[in-house]
Design a protein that fits this description.
Helix content is 41%, strand content 21%. With 485 residues, the chain is α+β, with helices and mostly antiparallel strands.
Length: 485
Amino acid sequence: MSDRSPVRKPIAIDVIEESLYEVRQRIYPRSVSGIFARWRIVLVIATQLLFYGLPWVSWNGRQAVLFDLIQRKFYIFGLVLWPQDVIYLTLLLILSALALFLFTAVAGRLFCGYACPQTVYTEIFMWIERKVEGDRFVRIRLDGEEWPWSIHKWRLKITKHFLWLIIAFLTGFTFIAYFTPIETLSTAILHLSLGPWQTFWLCFYSFATWGNAGFMREQVCKYMCPYARFQSVMVDKDTFIVTYDKIRGEPRGSRSKSDDHANLGLGDCVDCSICVQVCPTGIDIRDGLQYMCIGCGACIDACDQVMEKVDYPKGLIRYTTERAIEDQESNQSTKRHILRPRVLIYAAFISILSTAFLISLATRNPLRVDIMRDRGALAREVDGVRIENIYRIQIMNASENNMNVQVKATGLPDLKILNSQGQLVTEIKIGPASNLLMPIKVSTVIGVNESGNYPIHFDVLAQELSGDGMIIRTREEKSSFIIPR
């Protein structure tokens, strides 16, 4: 018996790397027509008309939707929000999350398949690619080694990327227009006078659109989007998802149209793989629900067309539930399971928060007042007859109308409010969506009260001059008044 141990050959580093990292195989989705394809087209047009058109809509002489970060004002049609209104943004984000949970629990990843920006722009870029280069098999040959580089190939590639970059530039430009008035932005671009930050974000979002929709595509959905990872905890057996009916389709296999597949021991699936060819993420829906499935329904349209050609009933791949497949139920009977506890809880929370959100907006007081005593200035005697404290008053007009504001102080005898020049403050004019910060002096007579710290109240009354008449707004603020020894 030899005492020599066998010599082990070193493992090649490239073999280890291949086992750790999956090499991406480019996907060439095949064009498909059908009801779900038409719905995708409708949603693409609707979302892009909204996105590109909204910055050009005017409201009261300004851009209807504008998030002015420099002025710290958010304009949403007739609503003007300030940083103090962050509660509305919080509620809106919570409502969006709950709505996403609700839609996923009922019908899976409908948002991903029809309204997600990544899906929408990928659909636009693929449409351009098909129009310029051709459908699936032409593009595969064009990118293969059997089609050498030539003037024709260069022309197709340059044309495609030129059109992609135009869409990407328009997308970046429109996105920035939600934060910078679009007319100002357009003028700056025409005169090549964009600021450094505007230039950076324009290039960043244009490049991101071009890269994500033109090159990364399904990689964003598979590896970058967190929604794909946690969707499995939001669906159950009663969630409507794109499903392959294995009971009806298996065992799959090819056959001629005239063959009786039942006698051959075959299911309805003819194993044509067209459902895989049309999938934008390159999955095989026949392997069951996968986190890469975005629920676009392209495989449903493709399979229905094949079933129609071979005279089989449609619906081998369809929107249904796992329970319906297992129990062989129709979609009509599965709808009875939609109103289950999970869905009812989501709907209840959405209803409660939506009601609170709308009531809060409807009863929102556009008059905001903040009064702070100037701690850097001590109380002092004036002319030996009055005692004076210094305050800073901030008045915010969150409406789009002019306001005439009157401020009155109570809590001590004969309180008077003066401006920094010593003049009696009777009325303060505030413009629409404006903010005013001014110092004021509040004084009372000497000798009536002993030294100490006394609470006082500021009663603020504003007359909002709207087109429908005058609206009275009121606020009350508390502060303190110091009488020195």
